[in-house]
Amino acid sequence: MAKNIAIEHKNLDDNFGFSKEGYDALMTQCQSEISTSESFMLLKWQIWRKRIKLMNNQKRNDADIGDPLIFPQFQTLLAALYNDELNVKFNPREQGDIGVTENLNPLYEYDAVLMNKPKIDYQWDWNAMFFGRALVYMFEYDRKKKVPSPEVINMMTFYRDPNAKSVNGDSKGRNAMRWGGRPILLTKKQLEDQKEYKNINKITVSDKTDANLAETEREIKDAQGLTSIQSENIVGENSQLTIYEHLTHHNGKKVVVGLANGNTLLVRYTILKDQEEWGIIERSIYPDSLSWDGVNVVDLLEDKQRARSVLMNAALFNVNTNVHTMYMYDISRINSASDLDFAFNKHIGVQGDPTGAVQAIPRAQVSNEVQFMLDFLQKEAQVATGVSEIKQGAMAGSKRTATEIATVSEGAETRFSLSAKIFGWSEKEFARYWYKMYKMHFNDYIDKKILRLNGLNGLSWRKLGRDNIIAKVDPDVEVKSNIVSEARRVRELQDFNNSFQILASSPNINLEFLIQKNARLNGTKQNEMDQLFEPTPDQIIQREENEAISQGKFVPVNPNDDDRVHLVELQKSTDGGAKDAHQRAHIEMIKVKAKNQNIQGEARELETVQREAKTLRPTPELGKPEFNAPKILQTA
Description:
Layout: H1 20-55, H2 70-83, E1 86-91, H3 98-114, H4 117-131, E2 133-137, E3 141-142, E4 147-148, E5 151-152, E6 159-160, E7 180-187, H5 188-193, H6 211-223, E8 240-250, E9 253-260, E10 265-271, E11 280-284, H7 297-323, E12 327-329, E13 358-360, H8 368-385, H9 402-441, E14 449-455, E15 458-464, H10 466-469, E16 476-481, H11 482-504, H12 511-521, H13 526-532, H14 537-550, H15 563-570, H16 577-595, H17 597-613
Antiparallel strand pairs: 1-16, 2-5, 2-11, 3-4, 6-7, 7-8, 8-9, 9-10, 12-13, 14-15
Helix pairs in contact: 1-6, 2-4, 7-8, 11-12, 14-15, 15-16, 16-17
C-alpha cells in the first residue's frame, strides 16, 4: 500500500509540460512504486548492513574476538576472478564489416582505459560476490571524452521491482524489471551542470533525506570503526541535496524521473534513447532461474563464521578462567581472605600445617571437541567456496601428497572456471552495450576519434568516424576467459607435443601449418605471427582472387597453383556460387595432377623457381583459362 505523500505544485519553474492531472498521476505512480520497493527491500538492506560489519570483523563486543573466516575466503575468490582477464573480440557478420571490427577491437581496449574499466570490474566483481547480483548503469555518454560512462550501483540503496528476476528478463522480456531506482547526493552545481534537472531552487537541504541512504552510510561508518563521526552539517555551496533517481515506464516509454524534497517534487523527466531495454548490465556469481539474487559468497559462510566465533570465545573464556583461577581456603587456618592477596616478599601466618590450607577449584580444560569443530567449520567453508588453504597462500593443516594437492587444485580451478564463464556473460553484454552506446550517441560528420595503436613497428594513430565504427550488421561479441583459455592452451600444447615428431616426419604433411600451430599453442600473438610467417605466393594470389569471388565473379584455377594452400585461403571468402565453383575446380585439379605426374612435376618445379626468385606471377585474367584443362575446370 502506497504511503500518502504530499505533492508540491506551487511556484514550479517547470512542470515538464504536464497538466496538473498528468503531473499528479506521474508523482503518485512513482511514490507507490518506491513505497512497494522499500517494503520489499527493507529486510535485505538490514541483513546486508549486518554482514558488512561481520566481514569487517566489527560485529562483536570489545572484550570478545572475531573470527575472520569470511574475509580471506572472499578475498581469495575475488582475487582469482578479478585476476582472470576476460578478452573481448568483435567478429563481423558479413564481409563488408571486416574493416569495422578491425577498428572496434583496439577501440574497445582504448576505451577501457578511459572508462576506468579495471576499477569498474573490481567493484562489479565485489558486489556480485557480496550481494549475489551486481548492476552497472550504462545510461550516460561522456560527450567530452566520447565514451560511455559506466557506474557501479550500490545495491544497499537500490529500490527494485519485487517481481523482477533480472533487469531485462528472458529472451521474450518476461520477468523483467518494471521499475527501479536509488537515492543520490548531488550539490547544486552538479545539478545545474546536468541540463535534465529543473526546479533546482525549490530543492531544500532538510531532514527529508532518504532514510535508507542515511542508515546505510551510518552502518558503513560503524563497520569501519568510525562510530564517533557525526553526520555532516554543511551549509553553502558544498551542501549536498538528496535526489531520488527513479527508472520506470510512463506513457509507454522508458523514462528517468528525478524526485526531491522527500519524493514530493519533480526535478527531472527524461525519455531514454534506448527504448528496447534498460541500459543496465548485471553480473551474478551463482545465479539461478528462480530468483533475482541467486546465491552469494556470504550466504555460504556467515553461519560458519558465527559458529567459529562462539567456539573461539568459549575457549578464550575457559583459558582466562584457568589463568585467573578461583581458590578454596581453610578458614580455621587462615585468619583473613585479604592475606591471600598477592604482594612481593609477603609472609602469611597459618595455624598448623599449611599443606592443603589453599586449594584451586578444578576447572574444565579446552577439549579436543573445540578444535575438531573449528577445523570442521573451516573445511566446510572451503568446500562451499572452493577456496582451500593453499589457495589462500597458507600451508595445509595436515600433510598432503603432491597428487592430493594437484587433485584439490584441479577441482578448485574447475569451479573457478565456471564462475569465470558466468562472469563472461556480463562482460559480453557490457561490450555489446558499449557498441550500442556508440550507435546511439556517436554522430556522423561531427564526432571523430583518434585511436592510438601500439604495433611491432611502434606507435601509430588512426582517425575514426562513425562509418569506421558502426557496422552494417551489428557484430558478434566473443568473450574468452584468460584462465580458461590458458588451461585449454596448455592441454592442447601437451597433446600436440606428443604427436609433433610423428606428424613432422610424414612426407605428405603441411609442415608450415604444423609450425604455425605450434607457434600459436606456445602463445605467439597474431601480429607476431604475421611478422614471423610471410605469406606465400599462392596465399597472396588466392587472397586477391577472394575479392573477385566475394563479388560473385567466377575465377579460373591455374595448373601451377598449390591447390591445398588455395583451398585453405578460399574459406576466407564470402559464401556463394562463385566460391563453390572455385572450390570444386581446385579439387578436380588435385585429381588431375594425381593422375598426370607431368603436370604435377612441372607445377612443383615452377613453384620452386618462384620461391627462389621470390617473384609473383600476375593474376590470370578472369574468365580466360591458361591451359587445355578438362571442361569441368573452366569455371568461367
